[in-house]
Specification:
There is one protein chain. The protein is mainly beta and 417 residues long. The strands form nine sheets. The protein has a four-stranded antiparallel sheet with strand order 4-35-34-33, with no helix packed on it. A hairpin with a 5-residue loop joins β33 and β34. It starts with a strand and ends with a strand.
Length: 417
């Protein structure tokens, strides 16, 4: 085996080794640096990597050192700058349902009650494509990040459609669900699509052939949230039957049913390491689950109304929960301790995100504002004002220097720092 080149992965921090085998084929190996901070001792890290990784020889140390400094620089990016309103886009005639960035952040998509999905240029604000063909509300939308060349749309017309993000060409229409599709995702390699429906089932579809690979049956109520693990080997589904199920993607078999919540699940997600997942529930708690055993490790309490959204930071060390009680809470994943409460909104918080660096949190609220918070202290750094109706969608781009907010006022706002 011979090391050919280093590649950087900024969020979560890591280095990817591309190496050549004897038969001249190339493979990749990832070195995770999840505990890297701006204060880390670089020499200690370099020595440890060289000691543990036979592909990296002593003479590669200077190159390795410079790459780790680059990763540390990224962790500091956009720390001090405020966001300013960059563009207002009057996206659709009828209300918006969702918005999402591609990885580079130069394009984003919006779904709407007008039965279309639109593709936008983030910088110019120009509408690039209108994806037409659904016969009802386009509710769930996603890019196949990190590639960004395909888009999926899930609709109340019971179908999911796969499109070219470049030309708008329709590749496939996936039919099989009996009722509305309300959540969907690509697996990380972009080869499989998952759809979750009000018909109590999820389905796995082959991107290339358009065939249904598996129908995931077992929930007794609507599936409203789903998430693939980092390598796309497992998927979790969260349901109104108060449970989360863990499935094997290749076989379609249910591995675990995670029970213990006393109400409908609103949101579920894997951590980056794929050994844990979280579930937010209308019973006012968030649970942390061990994927291997199916055991509940922590029950995160503190909210006094329904939890509407939950998410990990990019390394998986922290969790943030958003609630109808107008607050968000930040927890330590390992200990389950709450170390910050984000107070300030005057209406329910329906969406929450960490920035890629993990230093900031973005919340979207029915009080018509989005807010940017400091993760460690819980201080509100900025209120993003201007929408004239509730904000239901918000997202950071991959760099963390652009925010998109989607509102019931039928506009998207782009904020830059």
């Amino acid at each position: 085996m011979k090391l050919k080149r280093f590649l950087l992965r900024y969020f979560p921090p890591g280095i990817i080794l591309e190496y050549e085998l004897r038969d001249k084929t190339r493979e990749m190996k990832e070195i995770d640096l999840l505990h890297l901070t701006p204060d880390s001792d670089v020499d200690v890290i370099v020595n440890q990597i060289v000691f543990e990784e036979p592909l990296i020889t002593e003479n590669r140390k200077p190159h390795l050192r410079s790459m780790i400094y680059k990763l540390m620089e990224k962790l500091h990016a956009n720390e001090t700058n405020d966001f300013f309103l960059f563009k207002i886009l009057r996206a659709h005639i009828l209300p918006l349902t969702n918005c999402a960035f591609n990885k580079s952040g130069d394009k984003f998509i919006t779904g709407s009650y007008d039965r279309t999905c639109k593709v936008w240029n983030t910088i110019s604000g120009d509408e690039l494509l209108t994806l037409e063909g659904h016969r009802n509300v386009v509710y769930a939308i996603a890019f196949n990040n990190p590639y960004g060349d395909k888009i999926i749309t899930g609709s109340f017309d019971k179908t999911c459609k796969l499109w070219s993000a470049e030309t708008g060409q329709l590749y496939h229409t996936y039919r099989g669900h009996a009722t509305e599709i309300v959540c969907l995702s690509f697996n990380p390699p972009g080869t499989v699509i998952a759809t979750g429906s009000m018909d109590n089932s999820a389905r796995l579809w082959d991107v290339e052939t358009g065939e249904c690979m598996h129908t995931l049956l077992g929930h007794s109520a609507e599936i409203v949230s789903l998430d693939f693990d980092t390598h796309g080997q497992r998927i979790i589904t969260g349901s109104f039957d108060n449970s989360v199920k863990v499935w094997d993607v290749r076989s379609g078999r249910c591995i675990h049913t995670l029970t213990g919540h006393q109400g409908e699940i609103s949101s579920c997600q894997f951590n980056y390491g794929s050994d844990l997942c979280i579930s937010g529930c209308i019973d006012r708690t968030c649970k942390v689950w061990d994927i291997q055993s199916g055991a509940c490790i922590h029950t995160l309490r503190g909210h006094n109304d329904e939890i509407l959204d939950v998410t990990f930071n990019s390394t998986g060390s922290k969790i943030v929960t958003a609630s109808a009680d107008s607050t968000a809470r930040v927890y330590n994943t390992m200990t389950g301790a709450c170390h910050a409460v984000l107070n300030g909104h005057e209406g329910e918080i329906s969406k929450v995100n960490f920035n890629p660096q993990g230093s900031r949190i973005l919340t979207a609220s029915s009080d018509k504002t989005a807010r940017v918070w400091e993760t460690e202290t819980g201080d509100c750094l900025q209120v993003l004002e201007g929408h004239t109706d509730e904000i239901f969608s918000c997202a950071f781009n991959y760099e963390g220097d652009t925010i998109i907010t989607g509102s019931k006022d039928n506009t998207c706002r782009i904020w830059k720092c």
